[in-house]
Amino acid sequence: MKRAFLSLLLGLCLNSVIGQSGNIDTSFHIGTGFSATVTAIAKQPDNKIIVGGLFTSYNGTSYKSLVRLKPNGTIDSTFHVGTNGINGTIKSIYVLPDTSIIVAGGISMVNTTSVYGIVKLDKNGNIDPSFNISNSLDGGINAMDVDVLTGKIYIGGNFTTVNGTPSKHIARLLPNGDLDNSFVVGSGFTGMFGSAPVYSLLVQADQKLLVGGDFMYYQGLIASKLCRIKQNGDVDTAFVTNLSSGFDNIIRAIEQMADGKILVGGDFTVCQGSTYNKIACLNSDGSPNTSFDVAGGPSGSVYSLKKTPNNKIMVGGSFNFFNGVMDRALVRINANGTRDANFATGTGFTQTGNAPIVYATYVSTDSSVFAGGYFDKYQDSSYLNIVKIVGKGNSTLTIPTLTTNIPTLITNNSAKFWGEVIDNGNSAILENGVCWSTSANPSISDNFASTSIGSNAFNLFVYNLQDTTRYYVRAYARNSEGYGYGDEITFKTRSNENYTCGEVTFTYNGIPVTYGTVKGKYGRCWLDRDLGSSRVAESANDALAKGDYFQWGRLADGHQLYGSDTTSELSTTSNPGHSKFIVSPNAPNNWMTTDDNSLWEGLNAPNNPCPSGWRIPTQSEFLEEMSIWEDNTINGAFNSSLRLHYTGARSYNLGGGYPINTLAVYWTSSASNDNAKLLSIEPSVTAVIANGKKAFGASVRCIKDYTVGIEESKLQNSTLSIYPNPANSSITINYSGDLSETTSFAISNYLGQELLRGTLLSNTTTINVGNLSNGIYFVKIRTNKNQEIQRLVIQK
Q1: CA distance 545 to 547
Q2: I need a surface site. Which of 84, 189, 305, 375 has the fewest CB within 10 A?
Q3: 771, 702 in Cβ contact below 8 A?
């Protein structure tokens, strides 16, 4: 097959990872990290990471208590709970199969909405209105887990009531957030004195619930710090819970291994009468597993236990040593409890002026570790409160692992492809890009394009695709071990007929140029770029797509070129006769001494700078396009077929330029008095039609005049009406003229091509237009003497 190497490789910025297990994974870029403590970490199926805690910012950007990161550590701005964030500390995050999440902790407010310890958010961070957030808790939530078979949610913490119902330190909620009254806890968890909080929960595969905390009793029965509960809320008496076999201090973490053995960690030093320092392993019935021995164990508290894919255990906490060997706040141990010397943390975690703590860990399928907590360094490098650590040693080198994201901005001959390296296989990425074919499983033996290496996520535009063609695309990356490919995505390019109106060749600034075209609302044809632009915009901030800056109503006489000379002498005519940009610091800020609102009005306007048959759009035509955008922001403008983008501008009083990323401004042909109308889009501001001074320099995007070759006219002494208009599947032609003569009708498109023809047999005739696509058409009624044409809009 044809191998189209479209290399955009600009330099060899290798995204290397130090391969030793336990070292920093430098492919995860956190910048300045979190402003305060991280207490919860979860991962979505698409490998995005959700982080919760008590922070107010991440890498200098305001995110209060919750943020979602891309696999490379950058912020995923598509997920945001609002400017006010979440008030309080997030202790637990659970990701549901649909990528919505449940967040729990000591939280009381999500943006501007009151909550009571728990909330469900959709994939974009919005509160799920179907989830009950009005359950009143009299204390915070420390732990949460979900029964995957029923979707029911277990919560444990400091609370003693839920919505006024006694439920000491434990409760179960229905999937919609309501209290599940079928889970009867009775007197719940109690202690010898005062509070008896729950700190850890784990739903087993058999749907029984393991509970750890600082309690002595459950339902009045002895359950010293650890208890197992049945689905109805009763204690599981088959699990060893009597005081002599219990724990002497708090259990803060619970994990279950693949073989069913139960790991617990916390502050305890005794389990069932024997020494077990901070970590213990139990058999499925709660009895000690004697083959597990941590010996001296951690020198401080354990807050997190997570199993790894190779049957090891990641331990996080507030310790400095494990069994006499320095391991600050994080250590990996083997299944028998011994320290895994292959996981070398070196100097480990530190916190200036205080002891470092790892509160939360997440272990990926490649054994890499996300660690969050209270620290400012790892291995003497600045990592504020989160770090990603290599989990595999140099002995394990593999090809890269990638994901392929859905193509965007699909046209009749181009698309924007996306990919992301999830795991570099412990070897630096040497090349990445996308490959595509009309057959399944494309590889670099087919068509491919590479991009510069700078981060794990990448995207690029691909041109010269065939219209109305199904393509298969995969992201790829190469390291020292070879090529890795992402999952396969299939898409179909749009048809020429529905997307483009062909190419337009014309002379601009004395040079022949060829622009493409796109179709907007009602099938209206627009140039695919701004006048003076060298290419179609590839992003909303694409500086290379910048066009020229016209003063309203002027010809393309050279004044519009960026950097053209300026003059303060106003023109006395509509054609200044020079190429200078006329600055006008005084009201009415016009480049002419005499105002003229007709200079760009219509196809035959005296100063129309567009190609033959094209003109400046009206404000109504821009508003029509805005009505079908995804949203009225720069994102909606760019993602539309027109690919409008940040243009920059030129000031009317000094002639200086506005930076590209500060605004997008497009002239319309509409003007009144001293002002002309323009489409204005600023960052984080809704797009509007605004007034602009005519000496202002803004971009021009041309629209094809749909009346070329067709003029609407009226029959003498007759009346024609068409309804509905806009129409969907059929129209009714109501003609009150004389039918004694032969009367025909025809429906044409804006190019004048007849699509339907027939004879009117009565004054009221219904015609099927269901086969016509969205767009503007013309209905012509003709007799032997006269004719009348009216416009028809098809909108489905």
Answers
A1: 6
A2: 84
A3: no
Beta strand spans in 5-158 (E): 38-43, 49-53, 57-58, 61-62, 66-69, 86-95, 101-110, 113-114, 118-121, 141-146, 153-157
Q: How far apart are CA 314 and CA 304, in angstroms?
A: 8
Q: What global pTM score does this model have?
A: 0.54
Q: Do 234 and 256 contact (CB within 8 A), yes or no?
A: no
Provide the mean pLDDT of the chain.
Answer: 89
- What is the per-residue DSSP string for 346-414? TT-EEBTTB--EEEEEEE-TTS-EEEEEE-SEETTEE--SEEEE--S-TT-----EEEEEEEES--SS-
Buried b (16+ CB within 10 A) or exposed e, 236-249: beebbbeeebbbee
Measured in whole angstroms, how far is the alpha carbon of residue 578 from the centre of its chain? 48
Kindly report the backbone phi and psi dihedral angles of residue 636, in degrees, each rounded to the nearest multiple of 5, phi listed first.
-65, -40
Residue 187 CB coordination number (10 Å): 12
Which residues, listed in sequence order, are joined to residue 513 by a DSSP beta bridge?
Answer: 506
Distances (CA, A) of 616 to 334, 354, 702: 72, 66, 5
DSSP string computed for 536-547:
--SSTT-GGG--
Smallest Cα–Cα separation from 546: which of 654, 658, 632, 623? 658
Nearest CA to 204 out of 157, 264, 260 is that of 260
Which has more confidence, 426 or 77?
A: 77
More confident residue, 395 or 3: 395
Phi, psi of 110 (to 5 degrees): -115, 110
User: What percent of the chain is modeled with pLDDT above 90?
Assistant: 64
Bridge-based pairing of strands 369-374 and 357-363 is antiparallel
Q: How far is CA 239 from CA 153, 229, 242, 477, 605, in A?
A: 22, 9, 9, 50, 89
C-alpha 228, offset from chain centre: 40
Identify whether the C-beta of residue 49 lies closer than 8 Å to the C-beta of residue 386.
Answer: no
